[in-house]
# Entry
Amino acid sequence: MTLTQTEGLVIKNYSGFYYVQDKTGYIYECKVRGKVKEKLLSGDRVLFTPLENGKGILEKVLRRENQLYRPRVANVTRVLIVMAYDQPKPDLGLLDRLIFLALFNKITPCIILNKCDLAVDETANRILSYYPASFEVIRTSARQNIGMDKLSAAITGEIGVLAGPSGTGKSSMLKLLTGSEARTGEVSAKIGRGKHTTRHVELYPLPHGGWLVDTPGFSVLDLPSLRREEMVQYFPDFSEYADDCKFGNCLHYRETECGVKTAVDEQKILLSRYQNYITMLKEIIEKEKCY
# Structure
């Protein structure tokens, strides 16, 4: 009998076994064919051969769209950047850095303003008034289950990871989005082990399709190596004003006749957003000196 290969997604690895979910949602416990030399990650899309009793042979790793290192996960498509209305106050420097890192890694950022049951902080108000023009912004309260339906819709069909400072409610969101059974029961029952048995990154299937990584992402915030001229492409809200710059390779830093700096002066670009761009640009320039 000829066995047929099928495509699946690695949702967890444990002690040399890889747990692969097929398109129907069924999870197979797979061993790796010897010819596969790549180091497999949760999030990898693979070809595998299903066998009897929920077993399988992992045959090939398909091309990755991206790879994060903390957490170690592949093919993330959506990063949920969680800030709070207050307690703690939003950190716009961290927000802009996370947006940059998401775009650099070819991941769509989605800004979540949690704790909307609290009074809006002035900084949170700046997020609400500026960022929705360029990025998706969702208001939520994990405590009161407000806005979670919109958040669930935003990650349906995606591989998502949570990011942001501590105290903003990421753990509560993870529990609400995946469901308490998915956290400790259904998925673990299928693979015969509970979550507490491993520290490996695991993807939790979402009720309406998609997956959420079980640990916050982007714990390493160092900027990647790239040329200074490339920096601005990761600030899409600057692009329409860059057309008014005198120089085609304008860095929007020390140049004169800069459309972006004019837009900042006219309050079309948020001042803190521009200042955070300059901070990161200086880091990139310093990195250039090292290679």
